[in-house]
Design goal:
The complex is a heterodimer of chains A (344) and B (257). Helix content of chain A is 75%, strand content 0%. With 344 residues, chain A is mainly alpha-helical. Chain A has one domain: ABC transporter involved in vitamin B12 uptake, BtuC. The longest helix of chain A is centred in the N-terminal third of the chain and has 36 residues. Chain B is globular, with a radius of gyration of 19 Å. Chain B has 2 domains: 156 residues, Rossmann fold (3-Layer(aba) Sandwich); 70 residues, no CATH class. Chain B contains 9 helices and 12 strands. In chain B, the strands form 3 sheets. Chain B has a 6-stranded mixed sheet, sandwiched between helices. A 4-stranded antiparallel sheet of chain B has the order 2-1-4-5, with helices on one face. The longest helix of chain B is centred in the C-terminal third of the chain and has 18 residues. Chain B has 257 residues and is an alpha/beta fold. The chains are: A mainly alpha (344), B alpha/beta (257). At the A-B interface, helix 9 and helix 10 of A face helix 2, strand 6, helix 3 and helix 4 of B. The structure holds adenosine-5'-diphosphate and magnesium ion. Chain A: Belongs to the binding-protein-dependent transport system permease family. FecCD subfamily.
């Protein structure tokens, strides 16, 4: 009896709880603002938006419009971007077997940022081609960091890859700054984008959605394969798995997720470390649970971060990336200390 | 069951394994012995197809090179000398990885896979640990968990690299007895590397002595564990006597070289 109660029996419960938390965060995110709207009215209104459901939330048309045109897309974009970054972080961690791998620290985000800037400056592009440029940049950034980390020596392991990532990030960011100063008339647009922004309305949401769907599906499908990789290449091969192929696919999917997130909302750091780490502590280390919970948890986290960014110095707004770094940087040091101790 | 002909492995600039032949019949236990760095682990990896090598490896009368990875994984299970255990994974999830060769690439495990895993954990007295995190286990428990993963693979050949290092006397015996029982019950073919010569002679049907990458002696324990052979290749001063069951017992002699 007891032995049939495998760990995966607990998974639906975890996913359901995480979805509950996400829903609460989203309601909180929609609530904030000048207008006097109660949480209950938000819930009713959200139900009313569902197809075939008609509920009277008692909100005036103006208030409904505010919720629908401003708050809802904002909260949705924050959730999607946060979910993508957290899940990409978990994916990179699985591929590199390194708990500190993160889209931001690996050079993926900076690569996407540089490519996006170049695209904005050089090509008379429409918004639609930005994610493609960002994807190429993200893959290039990871590739650079990984190659540099490998050639820099096999001594450090965990730390070497991160150091290489930081070096690549600084370098690519420097180039990006150079390119953006080149084209002063685009500066405003680029700055707004770099600082991280989830307030781009429905357009921003529809832009990110297809990339989000493809990368999330790919990553979620590879959870079991990442578990196999976590025992090492030799053992994975002895289990009949082509480790290189799995690695390559997951790397592409994680870079696509990073690129989609960066393309719509700029550079937002540390979500990819904080969330998967917390998830591992709570629900165990299997990627079959880490990936879906990171997707949901990352969404909830970024919705909250956006809420804080909007309220803490209201009426002014903080860039959302500042909030995530404020939480993430101390966390990063903590994780680094723990992995150091475990390695001794 | 396993035939190896003229296998050589070159790592970097060195010939780590040179021209090794070996034969293991079905249901037999072969122990590979030899000093540190003799190439024992590398030989096992070559048999498993984990390192590039020259020469031929035949598994169950099929050339290993022509087996698909998943086919080979259903035939041979391998546990490395220093397995990486993801600390946050539960014992059950870890053992379940052994079912990988039976699960489609992006698919999920079947009820049967879970049953096999659960029964293997039962057999290894690990059922109570199923929900524990691997990182919380003692050395002996870890070694059994790795064995559980290999057994969940339901392969007919077990390649175990130093399955008893870091185990105390009681746990060594427990693991080796277990392998021996499984071999008799399920007709498994077993190849292990072992550094304790007496233990190797006690459990294995035949021994292969390696030194400097070459197979320098092979045969029944009594033929390989002789004072001249062990003295020369381990560079040690030993005394070897027949034990109570006639198998050789290796003693160190004080004041050796
Ligand atoms: N990747 C490698 N590159 C170069 N030499 C290696 C590599 N791996 C192992 N060796 C060398 O090959 C020799 C045999 O190693 P190994 O098979 O692990 O020996 P054993 O298991 O008998 O102690 C050792 O001298 C080791 O230093
Ligand atoms: Mg060895």
């Amino acid at each position: 009896m007891a032995r049939q109660a495998g760990p995966s029996r607990a998974r639906p419960l975890w996913v359901a709880s995480a979805l509950g938390v996400l829903a609460l965060c989203m309601i909180a995110g929609m609530l904030d603002g000048a207008a006097d709207i109660s949480p209950w009215q938000v819930v009713l209104q959200a139900l009313d938006w569902l197809p075939f459901v008609h509920v009277d939330s008692g909100l005036a048309p103006v208030e409904q419009g505010l919720l629908y045109e401003l708050r809802l897309p904002r909260v949705l974009v924050a959730a999607v971007v946060g979910g993508l970054l957290a899940m990409a972080g978990a994916g990179y961690q699985g591929v590199f077997r390194n708990p500190l791998a993160d889209p931001y620290l690996l050079g993926a985000a900076a690569g996407a940022g540089l490519a996006t800037t170049v695209a904005i400056v050089l090509l008379p592009v429409s918004a639609g081609s930005i994610p493609v440029a960002a994807f190429l940049g993200a893959v290039g950034g990871v590739f650079l960091a990984y190659t540099l980390g490998n050639t820099a020596g096999r001594s450090g392991g965990t730390a070497t890859l991160v150091l290489a990532g930081v070096a690549v990030t600084s370098f690519l960011t420097a180039i990006q700054t150079f390119v953006q100063q080149f084209k002063v008339e685009e500066l405003q647009r680029i700055y707004a984008w770099i600082l991280g922004d989830v307030g781009g309305g429905w357009d921003q949401f529809w832009l990110v959605l297809p990339y989000a769907a493809v990368s999330a599906a790919l990553l979620l499908l590879h959870g079991r394969m990442l578990d196999v990789l976590s025992v090492g290449d030799d053992e994975a091969t002895s289990l009949g798995v082509r480790a290189a192929r799995v690695r390559f696919t997951v790397l592409l999917a994680a870079s696509l997720a990073t690129a989609a997130a960066v393309a719509v909302s700029g550079l937002i750091g540390f979500v990819g470390i904080v969330i998967p780490h917390v998830v591992r502590r709570l629900a165990g280390g299997s990627y079959r649970i880490v990936l879906p919970l990171s997707l949901i948890g990352g969404g909830a986290f970024l919705v909250l971060a956006d809420l804080i960014a909007r309220t803490v110095i209201a009426p002014a707004e903080l860039p959302i990336g500042v909030v995530t770094m404020f939480v993430g940087a101390p966390f990063f040091v903590g994780v680094l200390r723990m992995t150091r101790r475990a390695a001794l | 069951m396993i035939t190896v002909r003229g296998v050589s492995v070159r790592l970097g600039e060195r010939d780590v394994v040179s021209e090794v032949d070996l034969d293991v019949r079905g249901g037999e236990w072969l122990a590979v012995i030899g000093p540190n760095g003799a190439g024992k682990s590398t030989l096992l990896k070559a048999v498993m197809g984990l390192v590039a090598h020259r020469g031929e490896v035949t598994l169950d009368s099929k050339p290993s090179a022509r087996l698909k990875p998943r086919e080979r994984a259903r035939l041979v299970a391998y546990a490395p000398q220093a397995p990486a255990l993801p600390p946050d994974m539960t014992v059950f999830d870890y053992a379940l990885l052994g079912r990988t060769p039976y699960i489609p690439y992006l698919g999920r495990e079947s009820a049967h896979d879970r049953e096999v895993t659960a029964s293997v954990l039962d057999r290894l007295d690990l059922a109570a640990f199923a929900m524990r995190r691997v990182g919380e286990l003692s050395g002996g428990e870890r070694q059994r968990v790795v064995l559980a993963r290999a057994l969940a693979q339901e392969a007919t050949v077990l390649l175990l690299d130093e399955p008893t290092t870091a185990l105390d006397l009681g746990h060594q015996q427990q693991v080796l007895e277990l392998v021996d029982r499984l071999r008799r019950a399920d007709g498994l073919t077993v190849v292990t590397t072992l550094h304790d010569l007496t233990v190797a002679g006690l459990y294995a049907d035949s021994l292969l002595l390696m030194a400097g990458g070459r197979a320098v002696a092979s045969g029944r324990p009594g033929q390989v564990l002789t004072e001249p052979l062990v003295g020369r290749h381990f560079d040690a001063h030993v005394k070897i006597e027949p034990g109570p069951d006639g198998r050789p017992v290796v003693h160190l002699v004080r004041g050796g070289p």
